[in-house]
Amino acid sequence: MKVTNSIYTGMPTTIFEVMSQLARESGSINLGQGFPDVDGPLDMRQKAAQELLSGYNQYPPMLGLPILRQAVADANKRFYGLDIDPDNEVVVTSGATEAISDCLTALIEEGDEVILIEPLYDCYLPLAKRAGAIVKSIRIVPPKWHLDHKALEEAFSDKTKLIVLNDPHNPAGKVYSDDEKTFLARLLQKYDAYAICDEVYEHITFDGHAHKPLMSFDGMRDRCLRIGSAGKTFSLTGWKIGYITGSATLLDPVAKAHQFSTFTTPPNLQVAIAHGLNKEEAYYQDLASDLQAKRDHLATGLRNAGLEVIDSQGSYFLTTDITSLCENKGLPVDDEAFCRTITAQAGVTAVPVSAFYIEDQEHLPAPKQFVRFCFCKQISVLDEAIGRLAKWAQ
Ligand code: PMP
Ligand code: GLN
């Protein structure tokens, strides 16, 4: 039999699914995969239900329902001062994952160089490679996760087509600074390159770290494709609705990639998301402050259990250093083994951060001392998890 595609053949299942499956099997508290345990706004779910029963249930327009494209354009203006034409500069997708795939597929030509920043969200690498890219990677390093200007500059060349910028960052919980984004913007101009901006956690930032899209920096309006996810903004991850904002020229081939991947996204859900995006300021403030309180709660608990907790400025996640806890317990400092052990022995599941690194001989080995915990859970659930971990750690 002829061989199947070398990128996907033999590829392991994504770590999020692996750990969630382990958690389901063992009945452990799942602080691995990032999803809230309380569903998003009731009025949005009611709106979707109402649309399902008495609204339109056939193919909506390929680019997305006008009402949602208008809401996305309005949100860009309201939150970031970006003027977006809803008819030509917005595409609605089936989740940010589809959006990332469409953008990479539409922009990359065989042999183009693509810059990825490790740790990286797991779909970037296979999707970029499948599109024909030669991947150049650089690293941000804890605890500060600073983007080193020199390393970034060295990653660029005349062959650079694009960079993928995940801001706020999963799993680092980093919000890129103005200085970092200004420097990146200069390089993108110098090398005539693009940025695919994965901004799914745009409304989940803490301690006054307001999100500022790269697209809003000088010279970046027409070089960026900005991706949002209703799953994250409205705590409805299972709905899988994403949206891409970009100049008409850049978005045109992306829309063509979308037309042959999913073509459309359920219309009833789109109406409900449009309703959600128009929510008043208080909704967005509450989302961030609720998650900030949960971050703090989990951080305190994890520290008490003996883990070193790295600052998180945004996203659903806290990264921890397991070194001293492992040494105290006589365990090897191995994030994957640690995640499996705490699932089995403590009844708490997390995700090894080494899964966010590129694994091949050309790359430095992944660090093995970091583990990611998700805090978008009810306080009572976090308390139970903290209690179990503390008991196990003793
Ligand atoms: N990008 C990042 C950084 C993520 O954490 C996730 C996971 N939710 C996604 C993209 C995918 O989002 P969606 O579920 O909307 O496809
Ligand atoms: N983004 C989620 C996370 O980082 C996972 C989404 C998925 O499983 N595809 O945990």
How would you portray this structure in words?
The protein is of the alpha/beta class and 394 residues long. The chain has 2 domains: 15-40 and 282-393, Aspartate Aminotransferase, domain 1 (Alpha-Beta Complex), CATH 3.90.1150; 42-279, Aspartate Aminotransferase, domain 2. Helix content is 42%, strand content 14%. Strands 2-8-7-6-5-3-4 form a 7-stranded mixed β-sheet, with helices on both faces. The protein has a 4-stranded antiparallel β-sheet with strand order 9-10-13-12. Helix 7 (178-190) links the parallel strand 5 and strand 6 (194-198). Helix 2 packs antiparallel against helix 10. The longest helix is centred in the last third of the chain and has 24 residues, at 281-304. The radius of gyration is 21 Å and the shape is globular. The model has no long low-confidence stretch (mean pLDDT 97). Bound molecules: 4'-deoxy-4'-aminopyridoxal-5'-phosphate and glutamine.
